Amino acid sequence: MVRLFFLLSGEHETLPTAELKAILEAEDYNYKILEELDQVLRIEADLKCAEAVKNRAALTRTCALELFTCEAKQSEAVKALHSTNISEFLEKGESFAVRIKHVKSHAREVDGMALERKLGEIILNKAENVKVNLKNPQKTFTGILTDNKLVFGLKLADVPSKSFMERYPKKKPFFHPSAMPPKLARCMVNLAKPKVGDLVLDPFCGTGSILIEAALIGCRVLGMDIQRRMVKGSQKNLAYFGIEQEGLIVADAKNPPTRTVDAVVADPPYGRSATTFRRTTKQIIEDCLKAVHDILSDRKRICMAAPKTIEISQIGKALGYRHMESHFVYVHRSLTREIAIFERV
Fold first, then answer.
1. Which of 27, 47, 203, 292 has the most CB atoms less than 10 A away?
2. How many C-beta atoms lie closer than 10 Å to residue 120's C-beta?
3. In terms of domains, do 56 and 85 share one?
4. Which of 60, 235, 304, 82 is nearest to 164 (CA)?
5. Beta-strand runs (E) in the chain
6. Are residues 132 and 222 located together in one domain of the fold?
7. Is 327 exposed, middle or buried (0-12, 13-18, 19+ CB in 10 A)?
8. How far apart are CA 144 and CA 153, in angstroms?
9. Helices and strands (H, E) in the chain, number of each type
10. Which of residues 177 and 275 earns the better pLDDT score?
């Protein structure tokens, strides 16, 4: 077990931390939370978990091995770095850079560039035969200024966001205005905690956003939609990204033609662009939750989105599920999504 810290996305208040915890649990990593700061989570865990986070996360930006945490003052950072055996992390001849980032308006009195130079000088003097390379360093030391603290360490991985942009709904061959953005779709998949090789069902697959994100982290995927054109569109989008699926079925979510799945991730139809076949969104959600109860094993999860006004958490509890948590995502003035996670008991 080592100390790690993760720079989280500022796109939502609660989802990044929840997603990170879910990834660690899905990948069977034991961890201990040391501290939750603004956009930074400090934990004790196996070093290898950073690779799992890099491969799965949508709302984490950077994973780093923590060297020290101190008060957000240059003098305190200098003192802490002098007490660190930096030679453990740099080999002879290696190049390095130091990067300091402010979260929001935290510690604005600290000059980040001046701190980078000062800490870089100390590392240059303490480590043997190393050099600074600001453009393409072999090692990067990163410091995050947040909540009046500096969390400093050796960067292990960045989580690339470019690939998510390449999968944005309008860039796919088949587009529909109700399509979920890829980052939120990936986050919802992670909150359901599937493992590599698990079968993930989306009973309202639409354009395939959730299926694509589940497949890209190594899950097997099965999609359903009551509309044939959506199933065909989903098939086109999955093929575009080279994804093979277990099946894409024209079917009603209240009667899924499958015996067992490992996780359900769903964004039921709602809003002006959605087709509900004269049923209310609440009825659709109730029917779906009833139907999938019998194809999920105990302790397996459902992650489902719905308008906040539906109160999906209450629906799930009334149907016998354990409500694990909910997160609220503002979309526009007339829509806030509730992302609810349930466990079958």
1. 203
2. 17
3. yes
4. 60
5. 2-8, 31-37, 40-45, 60-71, 95-102, 131-132, 139-146, 149-158, 199-202, 220-225, 247-250, 261-266, 296-307, 322-332, 335-343
6. no
7. buried
8. 9
9. 10, 15
10. 177
Domain that holds residue 111: 2-158
The tokens for 102 are 């402010």
Which residues pair with residue 45 across a beta bridge?
2, 31
Distance in angstroms (rounded) separating the CA atoms of residues 345 and 249: 27
Question: Tokens 């899924």 correspond to what residue?
Answer: 256
C-alpha 190/C-alpha 252 separation (Å) is: 25
- Distance from C-alpha of 285 to C-alpha of 304, rounded to nearest angstrom: 9
Q: Return the CATH number at 204.
A: 3.40.50.150
Give the residues across from 8 on adjacent strands. Answer: 60
d(CA 219, CA 212): 10
At 95, list the tokens: 């190049």
DSSP H or E stretch at residue 185: helix 182-191
- Would you tell me the crossing angle of helices 228-240 and 209-216 to the nearest 10 degrees? 30
Residue 188 pLDDT grade (very low, low, confident, very high; cuts 50, 70, 90) = very high
Is 253 found in the same domain as 310? yes
Tokens of 62: 């950077």
Q: pLDDT per residue over 239-296, tens digit each? A: 999 999 999 999 999 999 888 999 999 999 885 545 556 788 999 999 999 999 999 9
Residue 44: which CATH number? 3.30.2130.30
Q: How far apart are CA 114 and CA 110, in angstroms?
A: 8
Both tokens assigned to 73: 């003052």
In degrees rounded to 5, what are phi and psi of residue 335? -145, 120
> Are 111 and 191 members of one domain?
no
pLDDT given at position 224:
96
